[in-house]
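User: Good morning. I'm curious how zinc ion would be positioned relative to this chain. Could you predict the structure with it bound?
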Amino acid sequence: MKELIKKLVETYGPSGSEDRIRDTIKREIQGLADEVKVDPLGNLIATRKGDGARILVAAHMDEIGVVVTFIDENGFLRFSNVGGVTPHVLLGERVVFANGTIGVCGAEKLDDIKDLKLNKMYIDIGARDRKEAEGKVSIGDAAGYWREFSDLGDRLVSKSMDDRIGCAVIIEAMRRVKNERLPNEVCFAFTAQEEVGARGARTVAYGVSPDIGIAVDVTGTGDTPEGWKMAVKLGAGAAIKAMDRSLVAHPKVKELLVEVANREDIPYQIEVLEYGGTDAGSIHTSKEGVPSGVISIPARYIHTPSELVDYGDVESCVRLLVETIKTPLKGRF
Ligand code: CO
Ligand code: ZN
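Assistant: Good morning! Here's the predicted structure, ligand included:
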């Protein structure tokens, strides 16, 4: 799977600019679904037709980034955030625009580092003046982190593991069930605009009208020095969400995932995330309500250019997803 992961994480695609990553995923899932479509917001939905319950499985394909708000006379770009980027993480980082233009994030001279806010920062694309800068970028253009994938062996590091690793989990699961007759209808969605408020998932859920929703996304860990107190740790298996800021997992969905993990001997851990949310936040409140849960890939340094995951956990998540969609769910929800 490492080759697939590298390809996905290194592809450009801040929220709202998902064309390129969507094309990449489309190529990877060729021949794995009965129907593939793109909805008006740019979500990619691949359906394995079937009887039984309709399951929506969603991972977001967008990544966090920055957007140009102003270009000054010396060619420096002022910018705002697309999703959750933090100033001190950006300092000295390189970002890349859709056309390949690379920029460095710099900051004004500050007496106190606590004053570092995005409006005290700028992007330097190497332009000498406004005219030269305007030849490369325009107001409203978005950029993402520019960083390579690193294979540390059992651990993998990259930008945009959030949530391309979730996309990789879904693609790999689709491959593994390719020749199986599934007892459910499964809609695999690669959603747009999660990082700006799970917006793509909202229209996907409306269009698909599922009986049950499962998001696949990263979650934080509590296993770094003097870190957040949290029970999830890297290498301890797939995380099954109990709650985050966008969702209280439906008890029946949580129980289903736990039951499948126990039955198939898949390592898992129960997760409560005190910050952040996922596509399941939008899915579970769509229409009359959709029982929803989340399979989470534990990740350190989320929303930095170096999000770190454990390869064994990724495998556990793939297996948990595969065995869940192979379980007959009609009448259970
Ligand atoms: Co995120
Ligand atoms: Zn995410």
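The longest strand covers residues 292-300. The pocket of zinc ion (ligand 2) is lined by residues 60, 162-163, 194, 217-218 (CB under 6 Å).
Let me know if you'd like a different ligand tried.
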